[in-house]
Amino acid sequence: MEDCKVAGYDISKGTMILINTWSIGRDPNSWDAPEKFLPERFLGKETDILGSNFALLPFGSGRRRCPGYPLALKIVRTMLANLLHGFNLKLVDGMRPEDICMEEMFGLATHPKKPLAIIMEPTLSDNFY
Q1: DSSP bridge partners of 49
Q2: Is the pTM value of this prediction over 0.70?
Q3: pLDDT in tens, 32-65
Q4: 66 annotated to bind ligand
Q5: For a pLDDT cut of 70, what percent of the chain falls above it?
Q6: What is the dihedral of CA 29, 30, 32, 38, to 10 degrees?
Q7: How far apart are the first and last CA of the chain?
Q8: Are residues 56 and 96 both part of a single domain?
């Protein structure tokens, strides 16, 4: 957009700059154990896959995120619904529906504030595949 200086280098207007996100994602100065798969490193941090958070840039975010992301969300939800359809869910002994805590903790993923213990019993239906 305009002439500028970055890290002591003169960058002319109109210059195409390519960012090496592969090396950013593996930089030990930026990440603890960068070569390990540790998704929990983002727990408790405000992250957004839509592109406003540069921490996810090496993994693809914003306009460059995985094109299958919206489809994957729909498939996971459908698969989970089909799986749960084959089970009867019961509360553990002594627990009543009023005892369930519906409060949530927000972060990279939304978790219940208090874990819920349930018993899953398979349904005995001929229509379940």
Answers
A1: none
A2: no
A3: 888 888 878 878 777 777 766 667 766 677 777 7
A4: yes
A5: 89
A6: -150
A7: 58
A8: no
- 25 and 75: one domain? no
In a domain, 36, yes or no: yes
pLDDT at 126: 58
Domain boundary at 64, 89, 113, which?
64
Q: Does residue 129 lie in a domain region? A: no
Tallying the residues shown for the chain, one arrives at 129
Tell me, yes or no, whether 82 and 118 share the same domain: yes
Q: What one-character-per-residue DSSP string does 26-61 give?
A: T-TTTSSSTTS--GGGGTTS---TTTT-GGGGGG--
**CA within 13 Å, CB half, 52:** 3
Residue 128 lies in a domain: no
